[in-house]
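Exam revision sheet. Question 4 asks you to relate a sequence to its structure. Input first:
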Amino acid sequence: MAALCGAASCGQTFRFSAEVRARAAKQLPPLDDARAELTVAPLGLQLTLPFDRTLDASAHVSSAAVDVLGELRAGDKLVTPLRVRRIGNFSRLTCSYPKLLLALPDDERAPRRSYIVLSHCNDKSTLFLDGHHLGGMRLAFALHAAFDLPTLRVRRVRIDYVDSAHQKPRRAHKPALLVEHVRDLAARAGGGLARYRLSGGGELSSVDDVMLARLHLFQILINNGDWKVYSLQPLARYIRRDTPRAYLHNVALVGPRAPGQPALPSAFDFDISTLVGVPRGVAELSGGSYEELLSAIASPHVLRGESSLSRWAVLNLIHFLRRHGADAARRALAFVAPKRALFDALVARARVGADAKKRAREHVAAFYRALQATTKLWRVRRAVPLYATAGGARRACDAIAAGAPLELVEGGDAASRPSDGRVAVRPVQVVRVVVGKGLEPLCNKGGSEASVPQRAFIERAAIEPLR
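Answer key, structure tokens:
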């Protein structure tokens, strides 16, 4: 590596000649559209870097961003010298193979080419991301692309790690996923202008509303609770303390191409999603397993016969309908309605493990069952009482909030009842989501919280179809 740098010290300056940088840029491994990548064989790479500052457990203690010198080879051919940096708060603390940022060691004025390495995390642990979960990650990127959202390009690789202190392979044939830097995605989506945002606050009005609604549906499909676009966040995050804060998390905004146009959302980092399949120990870091959240929010008496994953998707779709404008939600739902065959085909032809395929099929099936289930639900148009009987004055709730979802009790056909009559209903939730506050009781009686009834009656004129 020293010969490539001339007389300069690579370890200190990271400055390489223009010739070396130009050659390296041409020789970097190509990345693929996430859908096409599902069928290609892994690329073999050799990554040389100082273990004591990157992979060893002691290197993970410091949160400081430190660049070290590395070298990337494909086969026997030198590809490029690199700058290497550990990234990812979670992976730095828990993974023997943390996420890495690989960048060409350009000077500060030159454009940079960068990759993210999503590693398998650990060799033997059953609690965190391992090799076969990377198949689920690849499927998540492919499904994201199938939603016609700007999607990062990826490439499956097998890496031989070499410790630069000893120049000997130490850890061979480790699975990983190379992911492009959002800068390159932004340049494609922005017509050559690499405008993008990865952090900070902002307003939802600056984001394309239909594309944002599509992104929300994608996150529901893969059951990912670890994302946020300013004030828009998944249902699972409402039990977290950061609920009122508006910022970007695991979503990039790319563009716009011109002033006044909206930015486009692009999601990444799906390792908390249950489609990727990380075990519960990690999923609970985002607020609890979805089964626990389901039991805390949903009435146990509704949507019987559905799987817990499908019932949880129903709650998330209800939340989706409340958080997006009617036109954007309608257009996003119309986009995804005919896509099931496409999603199933992506999963079927993917070169991933059997477990990853099984999880993906389950999530696609649960998502479409939930879409169908929401067409049979109703919601409260305005805050009105719930009555204990069809004709009496005794109340089960003094008022049920506007927007609360309801299921018609068997035999209670709301469409056939007179507008001034009552219909039998069952509340879908036992709590409601209040933006900026979190979860609040759904039913109050006499000024205090009351249990949500299994069956109650409501004025027919006070409800309307959920969709």
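Marking note for examiners. The longest helix spans residues 354-374.
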